[in-house]
Structure formats: C-alpha cells, structure tokens
Design brief:
single chain; 236 residues; alpha/beta; six-stranded mixed sheet; 10 helices; binds adenosine-5'-triphosphate; transport; P-loop_NTPase; amino-acid transport; ATP-binding
C-alpha cells in the first residue's frame, strides 16, 4: 500500500444534537484517487470540511504527510498542500475564467504557468478563458471551480460532489478528469452520490452511512458487487 498522505482516525463531528460523523477512520495514499460514497446526509461534506479545518468541536486525529494537523487553521492546511473544491461551484461571476484562476494563485508568473496546466486538464476552459464567470454553463463552472482548487498545486484535492446538477455527459467529462489529476501526482478524495461513476474513476472507496464507514475496499470490488444503491446507500 502507498504511504499515507492523509490519515484520519476516529473523526467525530456534530451540529448541535446532530452527530454527522461518528468515529470515521480513513486514509488516502500519495497519488491515489479515493471515493467517498453515500446517500444524501451521510456525512461526506462534513468529512471534507473537517479535513480542511472548517468545523469547530471536532474530535479525532487528522494527519497529513505524517504530521498531526488536527488543530491547524484552514490557511495553513492550504499551505501544506490540501486543496478544496466545495459543493456548489464557487466561482467569481464578475471575473473572467482566466482571472478566476489567477486570483486563486499566489504569484502572477507562477499563476500564468499553472493556469496553462489547468487548461490542459480542461480544454473547454481554455476556449472560454476570456468569458465571464456568469456566462459559463454549469459544467464549465464546475471545471473552473476544480481548476481554481488546483492552482496552488495541491498534493491532495478534496472534491465535493462535482457532478451535482450536471447532465450525464458533462458529469462523465468532469469525473473523467479525476484520472488525469491523479496521474499528474495530486491525490484526490472524491465525495459523490453518483456511485457508479465515482467508483469507475477511483482506486479505492469508502461507503459512508449515517456518519460511519460501513465498508471500504478497492473500487473495482465494489463495482463488481453490483446493486450498490440498495445495499449500501439507502437507495441513492
Ligand atoms: P449531501 O450530499 O447532501 O451534502 P453529505 O453526505 O455530504 O450529504 P453532510 O452534508 O455532511 O452529508 O451532512 C451530514 C449530516 O449533518 C446530515 O444529517 C445533515 O443534515 C447535517 N448537517 C450538515 N450541515 C449542517 C449544518 N450546517 N447544520 C446542521 N446540520 C447539518
């Protein structure tokens, strides 16, 4: 098995009385694509926010590259190489595609070079580089949101529900890029309700149900098991 890049042990998080995560442990190896699948409300987004350090009152341990980062700020987690593309395609509607990418970078020259690499992942963005954020289709906005998260060359990309609201064709196009991103050396933790596609682009997967990991295995094994929706996901 790969050296663990991200290691989570016994993670628990609540919103008031609601226990969203109840002792989750998982790992993502360097350069690995790991899917986090589960029904609506299972706790996938909460887990991503915990890894990024966005929630208070969390217990458990989060390690990145062997270091305990449990108490680190969001900014410092971004600094050490964790990128985050949240659910809901956050892009600046009043900036062009290119400007959206550059403002997600730290220095102009490095930013320009990195933007070209991002365009190589998403050629559709290159064609639209001078279009305003508001003028993009849902699929293009999602590509841009992922592109922005890639600008700092993260070692781990947290990708939350990238297929939400996309047509099957665009969903496939966006999720297929996960393979290219991992091939370029960035590990991916992908939260998805679209189980079949998420499993087909990932190496391993964790099935999460009511805040607990109920199964983990190679994605190919889960795919071969079939009938995932009723078996693990509460019908999603
Ligand atoms: P989805 O795909 O719908 O985002 P999810 O698997 O990502 O689902 P979470 O969003 O992590 O699930 O939600 C886990 C649980 O925590 C659910 O019961 C949800 O209702 C609850 N929850 C999430 N965010 C909040 C919040 N800000 N306040 C209160 N409860 C919340």
């Amino acid at each position: 098995m790969n050296t663990a890049l991200l290691e989570i042990e016994g993670l628990a998080a609540s919103y008031g009385q609601i226990e969203a995560l109840r002792g989750v442990s998982l790992r993502v190896g360097a350069g690995e694509a790991v899917a986090l699948v589960g029904a609506n409300g299972a706790g996938k987004s909460t887990l991503m926010k915990c890894v990024m350090g966005m929630l208070a009152g969390v217990s458990g341990v989060v390690r990145f590259d062997g270091k305990d980062i449990t108490t680190r700020s969001v900014a410092s987690r971004a600094d050490i190489g964790i990128g985050y593309s949240p659910e809901g395609r956050r892009v600046f509607s009043g900036l062009t595609v290119h400007e959206n990418l550059l403002v997600a970078s730290r220095d102009k020259d490095g930013g320009r070079a990195r933007a070209e690499e991002v365009y190589a992942f998403f050629p559709a963005l290159k064609e639209k580089s001078q279009a305003m954020g508001w003028a993009l289709s849902g699929g293009q906005q999602q590509m841009l949101a992922i592109g922005r998260a890639l600008m700092l060359r993260p070692r781990l990309l947290l990708l939350d529900e990238p297929s939400l609201g996309l047509s099957p064709l665009l969903m496939t196009e966006v999720l297929n890029r996960v393979r290219d991103i991992t091939a370029s050396g960035t590990a991916v933790l992908l939260a998805e309700q679209n189980v079949h596609k998420a499993l087909s682009v990932s190496h391993r997967a964790y099935v999460i149900q009511l805040g607990r990991v109920v199964r983990s295995s190679a994605s190919s094994e889960l795919l071969a098991a079939g009938d995932l929706s009723s078996a693990f996901l509460g019908g999603s």
